[in-house]
């Protein structure tokens, strides 16, 4: 082989390897972008779930307070029934 042929083969190998590297690099970039997008969606869902959990906890707290108030009212009414001569 003469120098021109060897140079052409080396140039061809260089171009092909550069193309492969560019292709793989773009695939990696796309994968990173997709992963970031997925993580953003997961974080948004997590934030929504935290808000729902906070609202649920507040509702439970309100119901527990109402239960205590109801029990106090029941006890008061039982005392009143006993005072009026009834059997609770």
Which structural class matches the secondary elements?
Answer: mainly alpha
How much helicity do the residues have?
over 70%
Write down the Rg: 37 Å
Mean pLDDT: 88
So how many helices? Answer: 1
List keywords for this structure.
1 helix, membrane, coiled coil, rod-shaped, 88 residues, single chain, mainly alpha
Describe what you observe in this structure.
With 88 residues, this protein is an all-alpha fold. It is built from 1 helix and no strands. The chain is rod-shaped and about 125 Å long. The mean pLDDT is 88.
Brief write-up:
The chain is mainly α.
Topology:
Layout: H1 3-83
């Amino acid at each position: 082989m003469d120098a021109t042929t060897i140079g052409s083969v080396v140039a061809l190998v260089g171009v092909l390897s550069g193309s492969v590297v560019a292709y793989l690099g773009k695939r990696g970039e796309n994968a990173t972008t997709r992963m970031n997008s997925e993580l953003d969606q997961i974080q948004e869902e997590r934030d929504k779930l935290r808000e729902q959990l906070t609202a649920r906890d507040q509702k439970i707290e309100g119901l527990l307070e109402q239960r205590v108030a109801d029990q106090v009212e029941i006890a008061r009414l039982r005392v009143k029934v006993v005072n009026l001569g009834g059997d609770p």
